[in-house]
Design goal:
The complex is a heterodimer of chains A (about 220) and B (about 425). Chain A is mainly alpha-helical. Chain A is built from eleven helices and no strands. Chain A is globular and about 55 Å long. Among the domains of chain B are: about 50 residues, no CATH class; about 140 residues, no CATH class. Helices cover about 30% and strands about 5% of the residues of chain B. With about 425 residues, chain B is mainly α. Classes of the chains: A mainly alpha (about 220), B mainly alpha (about 425). At the A-B interface, helix 1, helix 2, helix 4, helix 5 and helix 6 of A face helix 1 and helix 13 of B.
Chain lengths: ~220, ~425
């Protein structure tokens, strides 16, 4: 399969993609997909760099990162619908801009960065005058009314407390606490120094502990 | 709570079905055929195709609302449906009839396009041209409204009182007052008032018997003599009104055209009139008819009664007039003289000042509280100034300083906050 770059999807492009996906025989396709499923993240990144984004690679990326990206966006946006929109837009951008992936970071970091950008864009679209240095406590009221809650009361309290954090600290805390990303990856993702990230995370944790003690 | 050491799980948990649906939606948006990708989760998941199987489960109707309800279009209240009553209200819509004040020949029915009708015969042939005058003068068989009287007109039956030859009109549903006028020389008797309510379907004989009873009561009085008097009977008036006339128009038409039912009077002197109260007991009352009126399609707005002007409107107008009068009065008052202000200033100047040797009291807190205040202030936590961070522009820093700061940060001796440019649009090519 040849490397192809699709910037904007049109009907013509879709037809080409369909034809390309049907031309090879099914056996080779299945083995290729199986191989992608078993490969590591680095191998997948190399595959992406070598062959470009094809339907199989893209499907594998979606399969691997869809859940973590959804929960990441959900932690930032609180609303399920907003998180769903952000995830869809993020994967569409990944499909359209896969050729821009240079391999200088992990694939996961690159995907998280796109998802974070989509979440920020969505927040800006909903509230153009938002100040990311300030908290949005009004989002705390939406948490208990939305879909797909785990039912863990302490976890819900933590989510409510996170709404009282400035967005920057909330982002760092989410990536570190829930996604277990190393500071080096978060630093790459946010274009920030590790020290600044540590400080932000430390501030966030202290604030959340106070909030949780108050809410308890 | 120690968040660093105590791990709290995620607050959200979406089901697998959502992720599969989201993935298939995404692939559909991008035009990727999932059937070709065996590795994807969607194709992996075997979709359970529901098989239609007959299931015989007894229908549990407990808790189901058994009585249907409907909303009144006028009052917007939900009322229960009474089938017996509602069936009475089912009225078949009569054929479309145009009513116009103009000459029917002038109305261009041919202008109605044939496409809209979708009927075999043209519309102008299906429309029956009926003028208002035609409906009044010649009620046709096709117009059931014109046939049936819309107003319960009093139906008069001429009844002959035995032995006296007096014709008394007996009117159903309306009270009959028989005033027996005697000669002036006779002894006056009590007035007789007979109230009879007879069904239309009842026979004339029962009516005659009733009147006979009444006349016997009258004649039983010793000095009553009746003379032959012509009795004025009212003709039956059938008010034919076309369907399209509203209720208001109908009522106004009735009030204009229908004469008030007047009791038949016997031309006898008003000396003695006998009263009979036992007569109404013998008469059955006319049952209420539940049949739908012929004008069931009168406009709803016509049924609404106009409300009288509310009383508070007058009160509000009076208040507004008082307020307006006050403003006018204040506007026409002459301005204050400057001299008055000067006098006031002089008066203020004459107020004796406190002697200079006495210290002026600057604090209004009593002495006791002044003693306690420092203790309270000392006990309160010190006000802490918020941390002020200096923005260090790393771009303009010398390389040496940058390296020094980086070393400090790496060794945990200093922390630098995040850059403000973080939330600008990230460059995808930077990674």
């Amino acid at each position: 399969m040849s490397c192809h770059r699709i910037v904007s999807i049109s009907h013509f492009d879709i037809a080409i993609i369909k034809r390309m996906s049907t031309e090879p025989n099914q056996t080779s396709l299945h083995t290729h997909s199986q191989r992608l499923m078993n490969c590591s993240e680095e191998e997948l990144s190399q595959e992406l760099l070598r062959e470009g984004v094809g339907p199989e690679i893209f499907a594998e990326i979606v399969r691997r990162y869809q859940r973590s990206i959804y929960y990441h966006c959900r932690n930032l946006l609180v609303s399920h619908d907003d998180a769903d929109d952000a995830v869809q837009n993020a994967f569409i951008k990944i499909w359209q801009n896969a050729s821009q992936f240079k391999g200088e970071s992990l694939l996961r970091t690159w995907i998280y960065r796109i998802a974070t950008n989509e979440s920020i864009n969505l927040i800006r679209k909903r509230k153009p005058t938002i100040d990311f240095d300030e908290a949005q406590p009004e989002m705390a009221e939406m948490i208990t009314e939305d879909l797909y809650l785990s039912g863990d009361e302490i976890a819900l309290k933590l989510q409510k407390a996170m709404c009282f954090l400035p967005f920057k600290q909330k982002l760092v805390f989410t990536l570190r606490y829930f996604e277990d990303l190393p500071y080096a990856d978060i630093a790459l993702l946010t274009s920030t120094s590790e020290g600044a990230l540590k400080a932000s995370y430390h501030h966030a944790v202290k604030k959340l502990e106070i909030y949780l003690n108050v809410l308890r | 709570m120690d968040l660093e050491n105590e791990k709290i799980g995620p607050a959200y948990k979406a089901p697998d079905s959502y992720f599969k649906e989201s993935e298939s939606r995404l692939m559909q948006r991008l035009g990727i055929d999932m059937s070709q990708l065996s590795g994807s989760t969607v194709s992996e998941a075997k979709v359970a195709v529901p098989v239609a199987q007959p299931v015989s489960v007894p229908l549990d109707t407990t808790g189901v609302q058994k009585r249907a309800r409907k909303q009144d279009p006028i009052t917007s209240k939900s009322v229960g449906i009474n089938k017996d009553l509602d069936e009475l209200g089912n009225v078949e819509i009569a054929p479309l009839t145009f009513t116009t004040n103009e000459n029917p020949e002038w109305v261009n029915f041919g202008a109605i396009p044939e496409v809209e009708s979708a009927l075999e015969t043209p519309l102008d042939q299906q429309i029956k041209k009926v003028s208002y005058g035609d409906l009044l003068n010649q009620p046709s068989a096709e117009n059931p409204v014109a046939e049936t009287p819309l107003v319960a007109s009093p139906i008069a039956e001429n009844v002959v009182v035995n032995g006296h030859g007096v014709e008394i009109p007996v009117v159903d549903t309306t009270p009959i007052t028989v005033e027996v006028l005697t000669n002036g020389t006779e002894t006056p008797v009590a007035p007789v008032e007979i109230t009879a309510s007879i069904e239309i379907e009842s026979t004339i004989e029962s009516t005659t018997e009733l009147v006979e009873t009444a006349s016997e009561l009258v004649t039983s009085q010793p000095v009553v003599e009746l003379t032959d008097v012509p009795v004025v009977t009212e003709p039956v008036v059938i008010h034919a009104v076309p369907e399209s006339v509203g209720l208001d128009e109908l009522e106004s038409y009735i009030t204009v055209n229908q004469p008030a039912p007047t009791p038949a009077k016997l031309d006898v002197a008003p000396a003695a009139v006998a009263q009979e109260s036992a007569a109404p007991k013998m008469v059955e009352e006319k049952p209420i008819s539940l049949e739908a009126p012929a004008t069931a399609f009168a406009p709803i707005a016509g049924r609404q009664k106009e409300t009288a002007t509310p009383g508070w409107l007058g009160v509000a107008a009076a208040l507004a007039a008082i307020v307006a009068a006050y403003f006018i009065w204040t506007a026409i008052q002459p301005p204050k003289l400057d001299q008055e202000e000067v006098v006031l200033q002089q008066d203020e100047a004459t107020v004796p000042e406190t002697p200079l040797d006495e210290p002026a009291q600057t604090d209004t807190i009593p002495d006791g509280l002044q003693l306690v205040e420092p203790l309270i202030m000392e006990a309160m936590p010190k006000y802490k100034e918020p941390n002020v961070y200096t923005i260090i522009d790393a771009a303009e820093m010398p390389e040496k300083t940058k390296r020094a700061l980086q070393d400090l940060e790496d060794h945990g001796l200093a922390t630098f906050d995040m850059e403000d440019e973080l939330f600008e649009e990230l460059d995808l090519e930077s990674l």
